[in-house]
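Example record used in the benchmark description.
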Amino acid sequence: MKMKNRLVIKIVVLLMLACMAAPVASFAVDIQTTVTKDTLKKKKQSESNKYLTAKEAYKVIKENAAEVLFIDVRTVAEVEFVGWAPSVDAVIPYMTNDFDEWDEKKHRYQKVINGDFPIIFEELVAAKGFNKNTPIIFICRSGTRSGKAATLATKLGYTQAYTVVDGFEGAKAKDGIHKGHRVVNGWKNSGAPWSYKLDGNKILFNQ
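Model output (C-alpha cells):
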C-alpha cells in the first residue's frame, strides 16, 4: 500500500507540473533508422513497425530530449542491478516476475504482464504534456518486451511508438570467451551513457 501511495503522489506531481508547463505544439523530430521488420525475429517485431538500434535511439534522445518520451519497460530488479540509461523519462515494467511459478525451460521465474502498464503509461504521457503523435521510445533488455510495449501503445492510438531492437543489454555472444554473455550490442555496449545510480522519482510502479 505504501508503494501504491508513492506512485499516486508521483503521478499527481507530474500532472501538476504539466499544467504549469506550456503546451507542446508539434513534434517535428527527424528519426532515422537502419532497421527493417524483415531483419528481425518475429518475437522482436511490433505492430508499430518502428524500430531503432540503441545507437540510433541515443542519437534521437540526445538531439530531441524535450520532444521524445523514453520509457524503460524492464523490471525494477533489472534496472537496479544491471543499470539504466539516466535519460529515461520513466521505468514502467511491461512484465513482472511471478515468484510462485518457475520456468523449467528458461531456468528462471515466470513473467506475467503488468496489468497497470497501460494506465501508468497514459498518465505519464498526459503528465508530460505529450499526445498520441509524440515519438515514444521503449527499451527493455534485448528488444522483445519493448516490441510488445510498442504494439500496445499502437493499439492505444499512439502513432510513433518505437522499440529499441537490441535493448539495454544487447544480444549474447555466440562464441569466444564471452559466449553466452550479452556483450554484442545494446545500449550498455554502444558507448551511450548508463549508470547504476537510479532516480526513484522515475520508477512508476505500484507493487
